[in-house]
Amino acid sequence: MLMAHPAVLENLVEQYDTLRILHAENGGEAVQQRMQDLAYTLCVSTGTRDVDSALVAARHQLPGARPMDDSVLTV
Predict the structure, then answer these.
(1) Per-residue pLDDT for the chain (75 aa), expressed as one digit of tens each?
(2) Other CB atoms within 10 A of residue 59 CB
(3) Dihedral angle of Cα 14, 17, 23, 25, to the nearest 10 degrees
(4) What local confidence, expressed as pLDDT, does residue 26 receive?
(5) Is 24 helix (H, G, I), strand (E, B) or coil?
(6) Taking phi first (over 0 means left), then psi (-120 to 50 degrees means alpha), and beta for anything else, what does residue 43 get?
(7) pLDDT at 75
(8) What angle separates helix 51-61 from helix 29-46, to the nearest 10 degrees?
(9) Considering the entire predicted model, what is its pTM?
(10) Are the CB atoms for 2 and 47 separated by under 8 Å?
């Protein structure tokens, strides 16, 4: 499986987290579409089928992640 560059994954995760923190899912159509696009891209980039799994997988691929580090788990 091809793996996305860590810098690309980090950028995707940061963008998605920012929109989620700002509750973008309740925003306008363009913002909701951007969030859906980021979720899709994260899934494709990590070989997963849902955004929560994609976020965990992406965080495990980032520099500094440790295999048994539970800080990469989302709540």
Answers:
(1) 677 889 999 999 999 999 999 888 788 899 999 999 999 999 999 999 999 999 999 999 887 766 555 554 544
(2) 19
(3) 90
(4) 87
(5) helix
(6) alpha
(7) 45
(8) 60
(9) 0.80
(10) no
Residues 35/16, Cβ–Cβ less than 8 Å? yes
Both tokens of 53, joined, read 């799994």
Joined tokens for residue 48: 């997963």
Tokens found for residue 54: 């994609």
Q: Which pLDDT belongs to residue 2?
A: 72
Structure tokens at 22: 């700002």
Cβ(48)–Cβ(59) under 8 Å? no
Task: Return the percent helix, strand and coil in the chain, to nearest 5.
Answer: 70, 0, 30
